[in-house]
Amino acid sequence: MKPLSRPDRDDVLIAGAGLLGGLVLWAVGLHTQGGRPLGGAWVLLPLAGTAGLELLRRTAPQTALVLGTFLLVLDQFTLGSLATVVMFTDLVYAAVVYGSPSAARRIPVSTGLITVGVTIGFYAWIHRPEALLIGVITAIISFAPATTGALVRNHREAAESARLRAEQTALLAEMDRSQAVVAERARMARELHDMVANHLSAIAIHSTAALSLDDPATTRQALSVIRENSVDGLAEMRRLIGLLRDTSGRDEPTAAPTLAGLDALLAQARTNGADSGLDFTLDDRRAEDGPLPAPVELAAYRIVQESLTNALKHAAPGTVEVALAHADGLLTVRVTSPYGDRPGPRAPGSGAGLIGMRERTELLDGTFAAGPESAEDGTKIWQVRAQLPAHDEELTT
After folding, report:
1. What is the pLDDT of residues 65-103, one digit of tens each?
2. Nearest in space to 53 (alpha carbons), one of 99, 97, 26, 90
C-alpha cells in the first residue's frame, strides 16, 4: 500500500482552526440540534474525526470525503456542531478540486441528485413545506461546495492549458528563430565564400608563381593581378560588411549579380588564368525572353563564379566552357574544365564551394551534380551541372 504523503501546511492550519472552533462552540454550549440519542461530549467524536480528515484533503481527498460522510451522519445522532458541518463542506470542495478527473465530474452530479432525493423524500415523509428547507441545507453542505470546486478546478485547468500553450508557442518561436539564424548564417557563408574565394584563389596562385619564378616580368604581371584581385576582394568585403551592419533599412538596396555579368566574370577569369594555360568560353543558348527571376539569376551566377574559381585552382591546361540553356521552364548551367594533373602553383581547396553550389540549387528545388566525366573525344573533364526551375509562380509559393 502506498504510504500517505506529509500533509500540506495549509491543511494543518485548516484542521487546527476547525478543531479549535468546534471546541469553543462546545464549551459555550452552542449546538445545531437537540434531543439526540448521543448527548454530552459525544459531539466531539465526529468533530475530532472530521478535523483529522482535513489533514488528508489534498493527499487523499476522496478517502477523506467518504469517511467524512460517515462522520457527518454520526454527527446527526449527537447535539451537532457547526464546525463539523463546515469542515465537511470543505472536504466536498477538496475532493472535487484535488481528486481525480472522474471524481471531479461525478461528485457535483451525485450531490445534486442527493439534494433532489432528500428534498423529495422528506416532503413525501412529513408533507410540510419545511422539507424544502431541509433540501436547501443539504444543497448548501454538499451541492454548493461541489459546484464551487468544479468551477475552481475548471479555471485552474484552463489556466494550466493556457500556460502550456504559451510555453509551446515560445518554444516554437525559439525553434523558428534558431532555424532562421542557422539559415541566415549559411546564406552569409555562401555569399562570403562565392564573393571572396575567386579573388583569394587568384592571389594565392599568382603569389606562388611570383615566389617560385625568378623573372622580373612574371613577378610584375603577378603583382598586377594580385593587386587587382585584392582591390576587388576588398570592395566585395566592404559591400557585405555594409549589408550586415546596416539595420536602418533606409539605404538603397545593393543590386545582386545577374547572368548579364558573365562576360565580365569570364574576362576576369581569363586574366587570372593566363599563366595557367586556361582559356574560358561562354555558350549562351537562352532565348531572348527577358530576365529570369532574381533568385535564379543570382544562383546561376554564383554557380558559374564558383566553378570558374575551382577551375583556376585545380583544372589542367585547356578550355573551360560555360554553357547556359533555358527550356521547358528549366535553366541549365553547365561548366566543364580539363581534368588531370596541372603544372605550376595550385591553391588548396576545402570543398565548401561544392557544398555552397549544391545548397543554392536545392533551395530552388533544382538538381545539382559535379564530378569527373569523359568527353566525346575520350579526354577526362570535370563537369558541374545544375538545373534550376525558372517559373515565377514556383518561386513565390
Report:
1. 999 989 988 888 888 888 989 999 999 999 999 988 888
2. 90
Residue 241 C-alpha cell reads as 560588411
Q: What is the pLDDT of residues 188-197, one digit of tens each?
A: 777 776 666 6
Residues 6+ apart with CB under 8 A from 134: 118, 119, 122
Q: Does the pLDDT value for residue 236 go beyond 80?
A: no
Sign of CA pseudo-dihedral 344, 348, 351, 353: negative
Determine contact, residues 342/314, Cβ cutoff 8 Å.
Answer: yes
Distance of CA 55 to the CA centre of its chain: 43
H-only helix segments in 246-327: 262-272, 294-314
Mean predicted lDDT score pLDDT of the chain: 81
Q: How many residues does the chain have?
A: 397
Query: What pLDDT was estimated at residue 334?
Result: 93
- In a 3-state reduction of DSSP, which class is residue 286? coil
Q: What was the pLDDT predicted at 396?
A: 43
Q: Helix (H) and strand (E) counts for the chain? A: 12, 5
Yes or no: say if 347 and 308 are a contact pair by the CB < 8 Å rule. Answer: no
Q: What tens digit of pLDDT does each residue of 331-356 get?
A: 999 999 888 776 655 555 556 678 88
| Helix H or strand E segment including 72 | helix 61-75
| pLDDT over threshold 70, residue 199 | no
Give all strands (DSSP E) within the chain, no chain letters.
278-284, 318-327, 330-338, 367-374, 380-389
Closest residue by Cα to residue 334 from 304, 362, 305, 308: 304
Burial of 173 (0-12, 13-18, 19+ CB in 10 A): exposed
Note whether 344 and 275 are within 8 A (CB).
yes
Phi, psi of 369 (to 5 degrees): -150, 145
Q: How many CA atoms lie within 13 A of 339 on its CB side?
A: 15
Alpha-carbon span 329 to 286, nearest angstrom: 11
Residue type, 233: G
Nearest Cα residue to 366 out of 337, 395, 393, 324: 395
CA neighbor of 356 nearest in space, from 298, 315, 397, 286: 298
